[in-house]
Design a protein that fits this description.
The complex is a heterodimer. By secondary structure, chain A is an all-beta fold. Chain A is built from no helices and 11 strands. In chain A, strands 2, 4, 5, 6, 9, 10 and 11 form a 7-stranded mixed beta sheet that branches. Chain B has no helices and 12 strands. The relative contact order of chain B is 0.34. Classes of the chains: A mainly beta, B mainly beta.
């Protein structure tokens, strides 16, 4: 089975802190994604990566950056956390083209105080 | 651009009731359509998909038919169970390259009472 793991299920940070969210997949997928999930807004794409060291902005990249140094790992970075970044963050990976299945991690619920 | 519209929720049903969750879309080109499900405390997982017009996707008793003429992909199940309680997301992608992305609807919460 494909497994996508996220470093934390719950995280509490203070405004202004630098926050790292880590995602690892074990199936050698080329494509990896970071979403945030908010009530009434569904899933919104923050960034995605289709290869090592490659990244593309999604729909809401402001306030976030990403890093993909190894194929299996995709990190989301909040440079200076703000309260409006309190959310559920979901990582996903996919092999091949857009018709293929995306596999999601369990999510990290981030609270910024 | 691409967009997905799902019916407003939440939806509460009794066990063994018939389920319909509406999904309509706007897309350039010829999209592939998906339903993803999120069980409590978990990430999303693919429920079913259809990649061309008139295709029917099915899984776990759920079905959805890709209707190009009405730009719809409604999810149906004949008899729901308590274990179907989850959040359901409709999504689409248009094949413009290997790095194409999914566009999701807002999701709808289904609660099934015993």
């Amino acid at each position: 089975d494909v497994k996508v793991t996220q470093s934390s299920r719950y995280l509490v940070k203070r405004t202004g802190e630098k926050v790292f969210l880590e995602c690892v997949q074990d199936m050698d997928h080329e494509n990896m994604f970071w979403y945030r999930q908010d009530p009434g807004l569904g899933l919104r794409l923050i960034y995605f990566s289709y290869d090592v060291k490659m990244k593309e902005k999604g729909d809401i990249p402001e306030g976030y950056s990403v890093s993909r140094e190894k194929k299996e790992r995709f990190s989301l970075i909040l440079e200076s956390a703000s309260t409006n970044q309190t959310s559920m963050y979901l990582c996903a990976s996919r092999r091949g083209g857009p018709q293929e299945t995306q596999y999601f991690g369990p999510g990290t619920r981030l609270l910024v105080l | 651009g691409n967009s997905v519209t799902q019916m407003e929720g939440p939806v509460t049903l009794s066990e063994e009731a018939f389920l319909t969750i509406n999904c309509t879309y706007t897309a350039t080109g010829y999209p592939s359509l998906f339903w993803y499900v999120q069980y409590p405390g978990e990430g999303l997982q693919l429920l079913l998909k259809a990649t061309k017009a008139d295709d029917k996707g099915s899984n776990k008793g759920f079905e959805a038919t890709y209707r190009k003429e009405t730009t719809s992909f409604h999810l149906e199940k004949g008899s729901v169970q308590v274990s179907d309680s989850a959040v359901y997301f409709c999504a689409l992608t248009t094949v413009t390259g290997a790095n194409s992305k999914l566009t999701f609807g807002k999701g709808i919460t289904l609660s099934v009472r015993p």
